[in-house]
Amino acid sequence: MSKNHAAAILRWHEQVEQYFGGVESFDQSATISTMLFGCQSWLRNHAAGASEAEIRQIEAIKAELEDWLERRGLVFTQ
After folding, report:
1. Taking Cα atoms as reference points, which of 7, 18, 40, 46 lies closest to residue 32?
2. How far apart are CA 10 and CA 17, in angstroms?
3. Backbone angle region of 60, left / alpha / beta, with phi > 0 → left and psi within -120 to 50 → alpha
4. Residues 7-29: tens digit of each pLDDT
5. Residue 19 burial (CB < 10 Å; 0-12/13-18/19+)?
6. Which residues contact 27 (CB under 8 A, 6 or more apart)?
7. Count of C-beta atoms within a 10 Å radius of residue 58
8. What element of type H or E holds 76?
9. CA 75 to CA 78: how far, in whole Å?
10. Which DSSP state fits 23?
11. Distance CA 20, CA 53 (A)
12. pTM of this prediction?
């Protein structure tokens, strides 16, 4: 996964906010799981060379996605 994958995660989150009203109103668990996987993978593989702001943004999105799954009684396994 390239470092620019963070830009894709951030853009996806921005579009969900813009077009769906936020992750809470989004109802596709497969997409949420895929994006959560992307966040976890990016943090594991690229956070060391990233800016603090970028890390905070990805961590916030990751937490939001984990909360989304938890509220629906779903479990993400990697």
Report:
1. 40
2. 11
3. alpha
4. 899 999 999 999 988 998 878 88
5. exposed
6. none
7. 23
8. none
9. 10
10. G
11. 25
12. 0.89
Burial class (CB in 10 A: 0-12, 13-18, 19+), 55: middle
CA–CA gap between residue 69 and residue 52 (Å, rounded):
26
DSSP label at residue 4: T
Q: What is the pLDDT of residue 76?
A: 85
Residues shown for the chain: 78
Quick one: tokens of 1?
Answer: 């996964």
For 43, counting Cβ atoms within 10 Å of its Cβ (0-12 exposed, 13-18 middle, 19+ buried), the class is middle
In the block, tokens 């990697």 appear at: 78
Mean pLDDT, range 26-51, rounded to an integer: 91
